[in-house]
Fold these 2 entries.
Entry 1:
Amino acid sequence: MLAGLVEKARRNANLQRLGRNCTAEFVIGIDDARHHVVIRDGLVAEVLEGPFKMRPYSFSITAPAASWAEFCKPKPAPGFNDVFAMTSYGHALLEGDSAVFLAHLRFFKDILALLREDA
Amino acid sequence: MPVAIEPITGRYAHIDIMGETYRIYFEEAGEGTPLICLHTAGAHSSQFRHLMCDEAITSRYRVIAFDLPWHGKSNPPVGWQDMEYKLTADFYAAATIAFADALELDRPVVMGCSMGGRLVVRLAREHGQRFRAAIGLEGSNRPSPWWDNSWLDNDVFARGDFCAALVSGLASPHSPAEFRHETLWHYHQSGSDVFKGDMHFFRTDSQFEADGAAVDPSACKVFLMTGEYDYSCTPADTERTAKTIPGAEAIIMREMGHFPMSEHPERFREYILPVLDQIAGMGD
């Protein structure tokens, strides 16, 4: 699901413009797997495979693999088309320092949109 | 080739609402039964532009949308700089009635979306004799929080891009990108304080569960129309609300999100035209 994310983000100049003031690390949880997405000045610098014992991060978005699979479809089913749709219906959990997520909300939502099959 | 000019006209009216005079901007097109349109929180009347350019509607309905005070091209009250904007249910209802009275509209249909969709439940109960029908788009009878209230007081709310990103997922992935993003642009440009002030009504001061039962369906029939992608007012919220209102009809719109009239005008007309036909058939 995360394969190619760094490259897709690197090619997206508008995404980098949106995130130019963002340096952060967040976690995408898929079932029990933990993927750390490292952002530097709007660039998706790398995706690191966890789990890590003590590596800090700002926030995590965790969902079962089946939920992420639906989210990643070009036109997801109702309840799976947006992080807030997923958290609202209980398909995903947003945890940690959500202030970072909300401060760069459009940027992070656009990163997640790159996970879509047609992105 | 002649320039494309839409049939919409915009004017200003000076209207008294709860003891204060407001300069109100409104747009309209068409002739026939008045159809008052209420925009969503943090937006303005442009959301209804497609209805005003649809001859299947404007040949029978006078479609009128006004910007609430503080929104779009309507003014806030004089002295706004020394107050915090907070929309209350009383003011919202009073503004809608005052607008209908000022324009001398004869038993208009009222149609509101989102916070406007919630208000129509109260209007149908309190002023059912004044409206021939009420259409709640993405409307329910109580707040259904899908985000944390505490963010209303966070500085991050003070940005248009945040307001737009907060609601972006409420538009359906099936809606055309052009119209989804036009809808979000209204949130970008509308002023975050305005959106925040509307949330006072939408999250705190719009508990209308007790209102539904008192609606007189012989005076004002209620239609509740909701997109299946709406997680702010879910289809379940809508069907639950409709059950509390005598004679109310719930219509769930396939592949539609929270902003039907502006995010997917072509799809929306498939749903709204039969409703407008039904209302036209009710007579006076």
Entry 2:
Amino acid sequence: MRFGIQLLIVFAVGLVLAYLLPWWSIALAGGVAGFLMHGHRGRSFLAGFLGAMLLWTGAALVMSFATGSALPDMFAKLLPFPLNGIGLAFVSGVIGGIVAGLAAFTGDAMRTAVEKPVSLNNRKR
Amino acid sequence: MKNVFRYFVSVVGLVATLTTCWILDGIQFKGMPLAFGRVLDPFHGFWQNMEGPNIAWDDEELLDGLTGKVTVRYDSLRIAHIFAENDHDLYFAQGFVTARDRLFQMEFQTHAAAGRLSEIIDDPRVLAIDRARRRTGMVYAAEQSIKAMNADPVSKAMTEAYSDGVNAYINSLSYAELPMEYKLLSYRPEPWSPFKSALLLKFMAWDLTGSSDDFYATNAAAGLGSLDYERLFPDLALATQNSPIAPRGTVWDSATVKVQAPDSFSPAGVAPALMYPEPDPMNGSNNWVVAGSKTASGHPILCNDPHLGLRLPSIWYEIQLSTPSHNVYGVSLPGSPAVIIGFNQDISWGVTNASRDVLDWYKINFEDASRKTYRHDGQWLPTQERVEVIKRRFGPDLNDTIIFTQHGPVVYDRSYSDPDSAGPINIAMRWAGHDSTNEVKTFYLLNRAKNHDEYRAAISIYACPGQNFVFASSAGDIAITQQGRFPVKWTHQGQFVMDGSNKLHLWQAYIPASQNPYAKNPERGFLFSTNQHATDTTYPYHIYGSYDYTRNLRVSDALEGMRGIKVEDMFKLQNDNYNEFAAWALPTLLTSLQGDRLKPNAQQATAVLAKWNYMNDHDQTAPSLWQAWVMRLYAIIWEDDMLRVAHKTKSPNLFNTVYWLADSAGLAEVDDSRTPQRETIKDVATRALNEAVAELDSFSQKEQVPYTWQNYNDLKVLHLTRQKAFSFYRIPVGGGAGIVNANRNNNGASWRMVVEMGSEPNAYGVFPGGQSGNPGSYYYNRSLSDWAAGRYHKLLFLKNAQQESAALQFTQTLQSR
């Protein structure tokens, strides 16, 4: 549940910030989600990763299908390994995911660090 | 202790996050900028550059600088039809609209012209090209050009308005809206200026006049001796069979300008080989016009297909430009205002390259190592020094000192010479493109010309690159003019590297525009040019250049025989794949084969060639066999003879070679001087075919495709960055070198236009690409397959901004805030 909410926060905050800030806004989305729903850094990372990937891969695929553009396939050919445009949407998602995941991890860790004492039931390692 | 650990984890996380962001925001890896985060972000990165068939811009665009309201109507090919209230707004809007589709191309081409590509792509090969551009004085040429443009209030105003329009677009761009190439290469566009328009036009001038045989000729003359040189490199070889631009029998006044030739002249000896990026010498074109007497409608029909490097974004941008006082349609060059090839209500015009030699080289003797003075006409004259700073993206600047004499830049000197040459040698360049001339004014006037006299007046000031301007009017006139500022030359002047100390070797005077080759309303009812010789031998001035030998014969034969011509007949002729060269040379060569010495696969090839209809169609193998065979033959014949030339050179012309082969007198050079026995045409033709077929077989094996003409000719349309991902290869189109449909390698019909000049122009056109320069757009290569198949689009010539048409898809209003 917490995981789902955290993932949704990354997705929603990331979507809103994308219209206001450059690409690294996905890190802020991850950080905010990690900070708000802190308690388990690994879970935060995963939620940040998947939330951002869902957003980036999803947006890339939706726009691809809406325009029918050949550009993703062309761009995929620039990479040193064989890939198509759909694959590139997933690669993009992984990039966004790593950034948001790390940021979520950090947000979680920061909240834990500033918030002492830490309640035990939030720390199920 | 635990608290310290928590802080530690936070700090580690923060550092990891920021480091990742920093790396993904852009780093340099082996001279390549990589910015995975920026580029792959779907909300700002390259995904934002995807565009479908629908135009999704605002209905209204507010742009500071416009004086009135501009209506831009887009048709189904995304061609902009611009309706403005005055000239200023028209060219402002042209700049804005063109930049929106072609900004990357506009900046990249002008960076290339200015020798500034290293600022974007830091690579040793790019640096070498940049340096060559600087040393050949491209920036100097544009500086001279802008002086002439600014001296004329009309061209000054139009280039400035255009520039303001481009900048209005550049200033409106967010990162997400940048063309995808900027994202990929991680840089931002800089402001546009009229100077960049000048650079672009000089870039085109270079493309069409920058190819030079002078070094090769100098080396060949030195190695072969003057007798053999004259025999093997005749000045007007085969010209007597050609159909010149000004029809045979044209009566010329005697020369009104004469120049003094030196008492004696001999080529100046060993020269360095060419190091500069030489343009494709196959750049050429066709244009023709048929009078109403030969057409079904009784109205003249004008046709043009310029053969240039085929690139994406396309070299041409189709556009309609209209104000209350004029209305013109055609193709423009992204980066320059006005229409370059096109038509209006009253006239149409088209261009081909004049192919005249307006690029010469002079050996310079400096007084001493300071290079402050050089010898000329018995005196030491002062030089000028210019330091070019080539900025590199990642490396240190390269400062290059270039000395200028009155001839022009000393391109080759102690800091820039070829390892193949005997030693450092100082050679200056004299190029018509360095003169202060104003070409854009011609197009301003042509766009508005209403009749033959206004056409002649418009082109009379046009200087470089020399062009064959073909003309037709709805009043029924047809005409052609070879226009440019051509130096008056004595025989052999500028054919070899010249003596920089002799004033008689300089360009002494220019041919008056009124004496340039010209013809109007000939009895035969047609005029044409295919980069062939401009005149017959009665023309009062010496003409030297590199000319077409075959297309002119095909076009003149075709037009001569045609009656009741319709536009569809013209489509067919523009797409004509008939191999004139093969048609006259192949029968002789086939009879020269020694059947018993042919390998089995070469025997099969003979059968294919014997049945060939001489059409270079894309799905045939015969054109590949012919091409491979004749090129092999050509190489075999000259490989031993040209060994006499110690330095880089070119073999005699291919067409001449085969002509001499077929001639009863024969060609002594057929014999391989390195073997004891005496080879004949039979030996070399047989050997060449065996080797050609072997070459094609190994081609097929290596490429895993049959050697059809499509595969072997491999016509490609390359993205400006030469990235394969954005380019197209092996386009299914026929034609080839010396063929009317002149498509080969990376060069071909860059625009095909057919205009019937009735009461309303009835116009058709197509180019191998699309209106958008964005590889992510539906309109990037929208017309490529139509072009390859020889299909045309009816050109939508709107009478006014309100006219309705089913072909229109979107209207945008531009006005000031």
